[in-house]
Amino acid sequence: MLNPLPATLAALFLFIAPAAQAADSLDNRIGEALFRRMWVAAPTATQAADGLGPLYNARSCATCHPRGFGGRPPDPAVKGDQGVGYAIKLNNDPVYGRQIQSNAILGQVIEGRPRVTYREETVRFPDGGTVRLRRPTPVVEDLGYGPFAEATAMSARVPPRVHGMGLLERIPAEAIEAEAARQAAGGGPAAGRVNHVTVDGVRQIGRFGWKAMHPTLNHQDSEAFSLDIGMSTPAYPEPWGDCTPAQTACRSAPHGDSKQFEGLEIPSTIIGLIDGYLRDLAPDGGLEAPKDKAGTALFADTGCAACHRPSWRTAEDPAQPALSNRDIFPHSDMLLHDLGPGLGDQVPMGEANGSDWRTTPLWGLNRLAAKDGELSLLHDGRARSVTEAILWHGGEAQQARDRFMALPGDERKQLVRYVLGL
Ligand code: HEC
Ligand code: HEC
């Protein structure tokens, strides 16, 4: 929504507080309300908020991305704990589909309860310090529809932070392709690749999700409605979400498609408002260059910046002046890297194989700095601290990890402090 202020004043306002300006618009507040809305099962009298499930994981976006932050895995020490937004993806099981839905509307059977068990390991630094790592094995308890097919594999995921998505969406596609070409020509260990995905017949650059499977925020948000909430959108029009033909009770349950909503449960206007809200949800930090110069140098010298590319410049978009032509500091090259078998599993997605992950943007970690030691970092939330996250890096990042291991203790601390300041 364009603001109604006189042009000069508006320009000044945009210059000093673009995020605040965007966040104040009415569309944004509606988008936020929809992000938090608890959807309900069909049928209801109003039809405006129904269509949940029949099988689903959570009833709102915000349940899994509270205030735009990420989630966490279940705590095996707490009986029945489900974590926050923890989900298990499958390589397309013929009965369970692409994800385990851990909830169901009345009268339907849940698919199972995603859990995790850990094996603890100790890693010793050359200078004597130690870190405990926990190696996860995902499990699904109480499978509701019989055993998995023999070829079925699992990949556990926690919800990522969703700040700054609009800015990442505006990084020019050619610039991302150029970064991949530059890394390939550089001959270093980091050789990132684009995950190309074809949506509506157009081959595009995947940007969002742990494996960069989604080219646009709209596509990512639409898949969330389908897989996580069980509601149809223009991009995923099946009202039963992830239910397979084998799940007949789910397929034949009442659904919330309605004429006034384009024959869908979530029409383009509603998903558009949610996309818009997320597009303007500013990252806390990452809008200017880090001030810690020594930390910046250490981050580069250790080899982190080879993938966690500090900065990009966004493209011009007349419809999105607040997101256009800006230098941003997400600390990600937006590319896939093979981080080795320690982080890998057997669930490929598009051109990403089981051990390929998109370099996670590190901006916004400053908001979590006080919690280092009880965080849920990496795709399955196994790392409780930045140090643990680094020590899980293998494959293309093995050299950077080994350099980190070899740093003197005070420089290790300095590097971690730098990352937690982003
Ligand atoms: C059950 C929990 C759950 C719900 C509900 C949920 N998400 Fe997510 N979300 C996730 C997980 C898990 C991922 C990571 C998926 C992956 O890449 O494997 C994710 C990824 C995302 C991303 C990509 C972020 C990035 O860094 O690339 C966005 C954006 C997002 N979700 C938005 C939404 C929106 C909008 C809704 C509501 C329509 C929603 N989510 C509902 C769990 C959830
Ligand atoms: C070869 C590319 C590469 C290099 C080099 C690299 N990283 Fe990463 N980093 C990644 C990828 C890919 C992920 C996502 C892995 C996953 O979730 O399983 C990641 C994840 C992370 C995370 C977790 C973020 C989160 O929110 O979950 C942190 C922290 C991190 N890296 C810091 C570093 C630091 C510090 C260095 C240097 C010592 C480094 N990385 C070197 C590619 C790299």
Question: Can you put this structure into words, describing what you see?
Answer:
The protein is α+β, with helices and mostly antiparallel strands and 422 residues long. The chain has two domains: 34-159 and 216-278, no CATH class; 165-211 and 280-419, no CATH class. It has 13 helices and 13 strands. It has helices at residues 7-16, 18-23, 26-36, 61-64, 165-169, 173-186, 217-229, 248-251, 268-279, 293-301, 386-392, 398-406, 409-419, and strands at 55-56, 87-93, 97-99, 103-104, 113-124, 130-141, 154-157, 196-199, 202-205, 312-313, 327-328, 336-338, 356-358. The strands form six sheets. It has a three-stranded antiparallel beta sheet with strand order 3-2-7, with no helix packed on it. It has a two-stranded antiparallel ribbon with strand order 1-4. Strands 5-6 form a two-stranded antiparallel sheet. A hairpin with a 3-residue loop joins strand 2 and strand 3. The protein starts with 6 loop residues before the first helix and ends with a helix. Residues 1-21 have low confidence and may be disordered. Bound molecules: heme C (2 copies). Residues 57-58, 61, 63-65, 85, 87, 89, 157-160, 162, 165, 208-210, 217, 220-221, 224-225, 228-229, 274, 278 line the site of one heme C.
Bound molecules: heme C
Count up the domains: 2
What share of the residues lie within helices?
25-40%
Distance between the termini: 29 Å
* Mean pLDDT metric: 93
Largest sheet: 3 strands, antiparallel
Radius of gyration: 22 Å
A few lines on this structure:
By secondary structure, this protein is an alpha+beta fold.
